Give the backbone structure.
Amino acid sequence: MQTKKQITLIGAGLAGSLLAIFLARRGFQVTVYERQPDMRHHEIPAGRSINLALAQRGIRPLKEAGVFEQVSRLLIPMRGRMLHDEHGHTTLTPYGRRPTEVIHSISRPGLNRLLMDAAEAAGARFLFQQRCIDMDFENSKLTFSDQAGEQYSIKARTVIATDGGGSALRQAMVQRLGVKVVEDILPHGYKELTIPAATGGRHRMEREALHIWPRGGYMLIALPNLDGSFTVTLFLPMEGDASFAALDTPAAVLAFFEKNFADALKLLPVLASEFFAHPTGLMGTVHCQRWHVKGGVLLLGDAAHAIVPFHGQGMNCAFEDCLILDQCLDKHGDDWERLFSEFEIQRRPDTEAIAEMALENYVEMRDSVRDPRFQLQKKLGFLLEEHHPGLFVPRYSMVMFHHLPYSEVRRRGAIQQAILDRLTLSAVRVEDVDLKLADELIASQLGGVRIGA
C-alpha cells in the first residue's frame, strides 16, 4: 500500500513535471508515469504543439519552484502583436504601456526537458512509455500498459492526473463513477509550420513580436525561436470553402497562402510538403463536473480544465494550479481529501473564467484587431490606465501581467468594456473622448479598488 508520503503523477508534461518539483522538494516520494518516450533522448513527433507564450502567471510558479533562472535562458521577449495585413503592411500593437509588460516565447520541448531534469534533481522518479489505461477507484488500483503492450496494475493511494486534455484518469472517472464531462471541440483546427532561420541564425521577421495575419474567420500566427526560426500555426475551420478540408492538394495550399498570406508564403520554402507531413490538431474546452475523488485522485491542469490556446494561458493556468496546490499543502498538509476539495473550490471559478476569455480572444486575434473601433479602444485603455494606475487596467494586461484571479479579471473586464463602449460611441480619435466623463465612470464603477502586480 502506498503511504501518505508517496504520490503518483500521471503525465510528465509541463504541469506534471513542475508539480513533481514542488512535491519532491517537500519530501514526498514522487513517481511520474508518462506514456511517451523520454523526450530528452527521443525525437518528439513534429507538428503537434503550439508554441508557448510565458506570462507573469507562469513565471511566478517557476520562481517559487526555484527554476526560473534556468528557464529565463530559453526566453525571447515579445513586446506586442505584429499585425500583417493583406497587402504585406505591418503594424506593431504593444501588449502593455511599460517596457516590462512583455510576454515570452519559449520552446515547449526545451521547457519540458528542463523541468524534468529539475524534478529528477529534486528526487522525483520518471517512468516512460507507461500508458495509464484505467483506475479502480474503490481499490486504489491503477492499470498501465508498458512498452511491450503488457498490462500491469499498482496500488496508488494518492494520484494526481496531469495527463492533459485527453486524460485517462478523467475518462476512468466518467466510465466508473459517472462523472459528467463536456468536451466542447471547436469547429476550427490548427496546423504547425516553420519559417526557417536566415543565414547565420538570423530571424527573417521582427524577433521580439508575436506575428499575426488576421483574416476574419481564420488566421496565421508565428512565434520566434532561439535558433532564428519561427514556429508558425495556421488556425482554420475544419470544413467549408476556406478550411482544412478544402486544402487537399499542394496546389490548393499554395493558392490559399498566395491569396491570404502572400508575405508569409515567401518565408515558407517547404510549405506544401510540411503541410501534409504535419497532423491537423483539434482544440476544445473541457468542462468536468468534478476534479477529485475524495482524497485519492485529483485532476489538475488540462486534465481538469483544458482550454483553447488563444489567450496563451493553458500553460500559465496549469502552472498557477501547481502553485496553488503547493499553497494548499501549507494549509492542510497531507490531508488530501480536504486539500483536493479546497483546491477545486478555489480554482474552478477562475478556470471557467479563463476558458471564456480564451474563446473571446480568438475572435479578437483573427478579426477584431482589424477594426478601427477596437484599435481606438485599445489606445484609450492605455490612456485611462495612465490616468488611473492600478484602477483601470486593460483586461489583457490583467490576465498577462498581474496575478488577479481570472474570475475577478472577467468581472472587472466587463465593467471596463462597458466604460470603453460608452466613451467611444461617437468618438473617432482618442482626442474626441470625454475624459471628464471617463473619470466619473471609473470612480463610480470600479469602486476605488486598485490592482497590484
